């Protein structure tokens, strides 16, 4: 129980240039071909054994959700087959298909029966579901008045009310609040320790590192990589690493910079775990240093007399974790006229999770962290993840390095 075998599966959809062609083909099946095939997935093969936790990676549109739907059985593959053993609980879409006009309680009974639970079992489980979901009196109100987070609470509570043999989660927890996400991940880890097979789709590489034993990377409708989390994630992050972003100048003091409002700047940045590494990285272990290399290219005739470069790090909840700039550090960036460069070394005290780093450019320091002109502010964001590779030693937002 809890095994998943995917053999040569592919999924294609028919695309018609007009409704009439669809109708003609429907009336004379097999005699004419008036459509084009769009392959969402092709030649996907893998086996997952009981008790494994596997993360599925891929950019939006790669086919991850389609793959999960074929495993669950809500979508049939065009080619190949899927074999599963045991009871499957899946959160593939927000609300598990709840009916908006029915109450939460009524939807619990409907969704529970679709998961194979009897009405008698659901009656006994209802107090547990209510307690875990924490939606209070909303349980007897129509789903249409629920927030997206409340729908996720109820859906997860129903799907995991009884430990399944296979648990499939498709990014559904992303809209839940942090405390509820923590409850969900604890329950998932409890299931994992009891032998439940887990398939997890998320863009949070930190979660993949901390929850999964193996990873699958889908790219351009095909299985790009499968194996240990570190190697597969490294291949994935090469494709999603931050790229340069052209942005228009942003002015705090329009009177001072009217002559350059129409000019462009280009900021390029790299994050690296070591100075020797050439390529930018988006994954760092706890305690690993982070080296930041920033270049700002000034286009046109703009020459800055006293340029300064800064950066800001935010967590997934948009809290500012750290920010600084060359002026605050009493440093001058390298100024080559049309190219301004700065580098920073960070002592990484961040907790595991996903973060963004954005960059800024200013001119003419006034002191106390103020500038005459802020040209660029919070641009060219790069997403990076911190993962934990050692035994649990600390918790919180930052490592205070107690001794």
Automatic annotation (TrEMBL):
First and last residue of the signal peptide: none
Alphabetical list of PROSITE patterns matching this protein: ABC_TRANSPORTER_1, ABC_TRANSPORTER_2
Stretches of the chain forming a coiled coil according to its record: none
Keywords, in A-Z order: ATP-binding, Nucleotide-binding, Transport
Cellular component annotations (GO), alphabetically ordered: membrane
Gene Ontology MF: a single term: ABC-type transporter activity
InterPro entries to which the protein is assigned, alphabetical: AAA+_ATPase, ABC_transporter-like_ATP-bd, ABC_transporter-like_CS, ABC_transpr_TagH-like, Bact_Polysacc_Export_ATP-bd, P-loop_NTPase, Wzt_C
Domain ABC transporter: from-to ranges: 4-245
Family of this protein: Belongs to the ABC transporter superfamily.
Record PANTHER family: TEICHOIC ACIDS EXPORT ATP-BINDING PROTEIN TAGH
Protein name (database record): ABC transporter ATP-binding protein
Organism: Aeromonas hydrophila
Species lineage: Bacteria, Pseudomonadati, Pseudomonadota, Gammaproteobacteria, Aeromonadales
